[in-house]
Amino acid sequence: MSATDDTALSGLATAPATGSKLSWAVADSWTMTRRELAHWRRRPAQVVVGLVFPVMMLLMFSHLIGGGRGVDGDFTPYLVPGMFTMTMAFGLEATMLAVTQDLGKGVVDRFRSMPMTDGALLVGRSVADMAQSVVGLAVLITVGYAIGWRWHGGLTSFAGAVGLLLLLRFAMLWIGVHLAMVAGRPEMVQAVQILVWPAAFLSNAIASPASMPPWLGALVEWNPMSATATAVRGLSGDPGVSGGSWAAAHAGLLAVAWPVFLVAVFLPSAVKRFRNLGR
Predict the structure, then answer these.
(1) pLDDT in tens, 261-279
(2) Which of 36, 66, 88, 164 could disulfide-link 169, Cβ–Cβ 3.0 to 4.6 Å?
(3) CA distance 223 to 199
């Protein structure tokens, strides 16, 4: 148990003895959130790597690999929103790794033995992950501007695009928590990486479905990441290339429906598995 975890336990031990269940839940969840945020200060290298990796991906595709398949003209306006989306999806791996490490070290069992609100640990994990995603997205937007990408929509559309990206990240977060509960070991993250990368590249993040075989293009357009990427491109005022299918025409609707569906499936399942640990 690290010093950070001991600090979190101290926060639980000194929690007020009175108050409603809601206030207890908020206090416990905030204690777990502070624990996760304290890890940023104690392990800054891990945070930096998480921020640098998507930047390297963006620069690699924009400058080294170059133009996109099926994209006419400047590739940057098409690529940057796609990289925003892929970054939100790749966050699944970081969530799964963090939860499996806590499971493997016995941290979860120790917290569960404390008089703590059930699920506070998962709430703390989710809040910290979303905070890191906001920081990572801000860094990526800054780099996007540095390489020539521009936002042509208004402030409202910008807020809507950020909301769609974070909604996708929230869905990926709970998929990661669920997979961590199923796997239970950090070693299994590698197996998930093998699945996440093909799923990410089977989207329109870096290539237009129009450049693919019809059956593959249709599959790509229904990918949740494709819906978010297309919706963000549309809100930016520079939609780029899109197909003529129903999924492409209603990308905004799917960019909300897909994450909501995924959260509805994986959040209750993750919480249920968390409650059944050790039974």
Answers:
(1) 999 999 999 888 888 876 5
(2) 88
(3) 8
Q: Are 181 and 104 in contact (CB under 8 A)?
A: no
Helices and strands (H, E) in the chain, number of each type: 12, 0
What is the phi/psi pair of residue 53, to 5°?
Answer: -55, -50
CB 96 within 8 Å of CB 177: yes
Report helix, strand and coil shares of the chain as percent, to nearest 5.
75, 0, 25
Cβ pair 220, 243 in contact under 8 A:
no
What pLDDT digit, counting tens, does each position of 88-138 carry?
988 888 888 888 888 877 777 777 777 777 778 888 888 989 999 999 999
| Coil, helix or strand at residue 54 | helix
Sequence letter at residue 274: F
The residue length of the chain stands at 279
DSSP string, 219-241: HHHTSHHHHHHHHHHHHTT----
| Cβ atoms of residues 172 and 88 within 8 Å | yes
SS3 of 59-115: the string is HHHHHHHCCCCCCCCCCHHHHHHHHHHHHHHHHHHHHHHHHHHHHHCCHHHHHHCCC
Q: In the numeric block, which tokens belong to residue 81?
A: 């929103």
Residue 216 in 3-state DSSP? helix
Residues in CB range of 102: below 8 A, 6 or more apart: 108, 121
Q: What is the three-class DSSP state of 27?
A: helix
Amino acid at 105: K
CA distance 197 to 92: 11
pTM for the whole structure: 0.85
Which pLDDT tens digit goes with each residue over 183-231? 777 777 777 777 788 888 888 888 888 878 888 888 899 999 999 999 9
In a 3-state reduction of DSSP, which class is residue 189? helix
